[in-house]
Amino acid sequence: MRLNPERSLQDMVLALHAFWAQRGCVIQEPYPSEVGAGTFNPATFLRALGPEPWRVGYVEPSRRPKDGRYGENPHRFQQFYQYQVLLKPAPADVVDVYFDSLRAVGVEPRDHDLRLVEDDWESPTLGAWGLGWQVWLDGTEISQFTYFQQCGGIDCEVVSAELTYGLDRIGMMLQGLDRVQDLDWGAGVTWGSLWLQNEREFSRYNFEEANVPMHFEMFKQWESEAHRLLDLGMVMPGYDCVIKCSHLFNVLDARGAISVSERVATIARVRRLARKAALAYLEQREELGYPLLKREAPAAVKTPA
Amino acid sequence: MTADLLFEIGVEELPAGYVPPALAQLEELARDGLKELRLSFGDLCAYATPRRLALFVKDLAVQQADHEEDVLGPAVRAAYDAAGHPTPALVGFCRGRGVDPAQARRVRTAKGEYVAVTVRHAGQPAREVLPALLASLPGRLSFPRTMRWMDEVRFARPIRWLVALLGSEVLRCGLAGVQAGHASAGHRFLHPGPVEVGHAARYLEALERAYVLADHRARALLLSERVEAAARAAGGRAVHDPELVEINSFLAEWPTALVGRFDRAYLDLPREVVVTALREHQRFFAVEDERGALLPAFVAVRNGDERGLDGVRRGYERVLKARLDDARFYWETDLKRPPAERVADLAGVVWMEKLGSMREKTERLEALAGWLAEQIAPAAAGEARRAAHLCKTDLLSEMIGSGKEYASLEGVMGGHYARRAGEPEGVCRAIAEHYLPRGPGDRLPQSEAGVALALADKLDHVVGAFTAGKTPSGSEDPYGVRRAGNGVLRILLEQGRHLDLQRASMQASGPFFAADVAAPHAEIMKQLGEFWRGRVESALSERAVPYDVLEASLEARTLADGDDRPRAGWVDPSDCLERGQVLARFRDDPRFEPLVIVFKRVANILRAATETLPLQLDREALREPAEKRLLAALEQAAGRTRPMWAERAYGRILPELLGMEEAIHSFFDAVLVNVEDLPTRVNRLRLLADVRALFLRGWDLSHIVVAGAQAGSG
Fold first, then answer.
1. Residues 189-208, chain A, touching B (beta carbon < 8 A)
2. A74 contacts chain B (CB < 8 A)
3. Complex-level ipTM beyond the 0.90 threshold
4. Collapsing DSSP states into helix, strand and coil, what is residue B572?
5. Rounded to the nearest 5 degrees, what angle is found at the Cα of B620, between the Cα atoms of B618 and B624?
6. Which residues are bridge partners to B7 per DSSP?
7. Residue B337 C-alpha, separation from nearest chain A C-alpha, in angstroms
8. Which stretches of A139-297 are assigned E, i.e. beta strand?
9. Threshold 0.80, pTM exceeds
10. Does residue B282 contact residue B260 with C-beta atoms inside 8 Å?
């Protein structure tokens, strides 16, 4: 199959899949629930915890209700596509390998200005933080590169490198476009024809129509369900509820229903849940005897298998 | 014999702001470390790029200097036997030090007589002793935040290579799983792969061939020239911003400047918005004409050479357009609703937990800013009230509420919106200034209404936080209460404004106490008093008021004009500072010590007294000449200083008080205060209390430390 990642977004995804699969990654699919970023996917948030080695790559359609612009803004939209890679432990040549992955999608660094700009990444809802960079391509942030230090408020025993690519942005730059609406998704279909109506409707929903009392009520319900399930040691269903709470909060926030100080308090409630899920996961993995430790070590990242 | 030393720590890209402090530390640590190792050197300096911190030492001695050390051995009685021969203890001690026992000598110490020897240490080759020092350096640099990447090693970003050369010889040293060698790294894209550094002295040349300008001073200079040249080519000059030059120089190993343009229409946005859009995210320089008006152009610095520059420029322009579009979207949306219409919506914005909404804060600020303006600038009271009414509405604007990168323009935007809505200029300025100062180095509000509102905002913050129990403790101050308090003090002290902080706090607390009648009001006011006293104390000691003078000024019992209830010395910080500075200056005066001694005599006898004193002195009951003389001296000093207190002419007051010295001393010499007869005793104490009260209006001199202050007890 011949790919032309400079021509279409789907070729870009396929090129990244191939690149990272050759470097020992499991290629996974998105998490089937609304998330704000690929980090929320348990393949990152939970697997970054504990001693087990892990490499994964996947696309994550991510929702940020507040960023919706009714499909009218050429650069802002409430649903965007991340390509997410987690390398645990972080290999010593990980920065160079990341730049190689850009070459694989058609970005030749010498033709551009590529910079690593400091970023103390933090997800207050997940109680996760790490140090690393935003990667700028000719002034546009195209990636987030983070060495995870904590997840769910717990120190990462083995430090992972998390690489997140903003597919829509890289695609626009590769295709030389000023408007996301014109982005060639693949097979001659544009972003606009796929997602424009979706943006209009979700922007309207998130800013105008979302039922506020219902969202508050659902937040409360999923929150208590999360506590109950995690108390029972049911990690995945419990964490699933945490993800739901986080999205409900984002909708309420977009709807303007949460004041500045309530914001802090509500985020803290989600963070407590995330921590509880992280602790339950660690306990469960220990009980299971860390199955991924027993696997053969994956091949060195630099030399494709 | 000397050789040059190079030690390079190769890292993944460091945050630009981390580098300058690390450079200074690296130089200092190396200087101290080499001195400790007794390795002399000609010159020492550090270099840095985003990917490396390097230490270069010119003409370093290749051999440590020899040195002698005196070592104390066993006590003489244990060192020699009866016949005066060395005991096994002494022989063993000397063998351990490599010295002949015959060279031992006797020394006297506080513990008795001991033997001592002089040990000669031959210097070691530098290459033997340097590795330990070099390997210890990275771990001793401190950064705002550090990270782990493997094991437990911490550094600002992962360390990936080390170069350690003495001349052309590799020093064997390792750290974080990396061994030092000859190999450095060139520019990530212009020269991938290792760069051999053959000799320490050729470090800069070797890297320059690999597209890295490692000397940051030279790099910043070059960058600055290139930015200026580019700005000239764009028809103007770069907006002066040395910090931005430094940031850019620590973002690029091979800087190339280029000019980009944007649509002139964006210049309709407020200047601060355009400059922030250029600077905060993109690190671009704004360009202005000779009159200081912005041009629709910017200068960017690329980390690389000229290849593909047009594509890079298009990328920069595209991203900037998106940012400016966002800003314009915010601005135009915001202009649709004038600030006055947004006030009611502040009810939906919570200020601080338990302290209600911004709407309620607005109401409190209107009253408080008006009251404060009456105290410090009555003419501005109307403007201050109006500004208070509108000042928080920009929180509801898109620019501040949605555009995170513009959060630093809080207040400033409020001023712009008010101006567009046709509010009077004084109101707009006050709104724009009301968060000032935001920190120790920030500028102060200048307009009278701005000062009143800035003070009101901070006082309401402090008093509200205390009412809600969100008080600072130890080094913890999550609600920024101390910062707000320090802001109040900076305004008052640096602008020489007089305000009674106790009354102002009382005024600010009114609405909070009315809303919470069950709160322990007296206790809260007491805590607030302690808080302010602490802020005043630290602000004055930062302004070099000596500790005891400071205490004396803080503990005064001052009297405001037309008020006969004494106030604590700190309540008017500017007044307290003036009194402190005058007293500190008076300290070198020969009359200072007698003044303190006299006051302490009076204070001590009053402190020891347990009697209830009459409210008024019975003048007729004073019979002794010394009593009458003291009364006369007191009345004279009180009379002469009366107008001076109102004028705060403290430099003239002190000598007047000293005029009582003789009368006080002769009173103590001639009169027994503690006589049997109670009415006489309490009346004499009353007289002394009046003397003390006059001193106390400026200073409680009992806190002053003087060498000869042996106070008599009367």
1. none
2. yes
3. yes
4. coil
5. 105
6. B55, B164
7. 17
8. 140-151, 154-155, 161-166, 184-186, 189-190
9. no
10. no
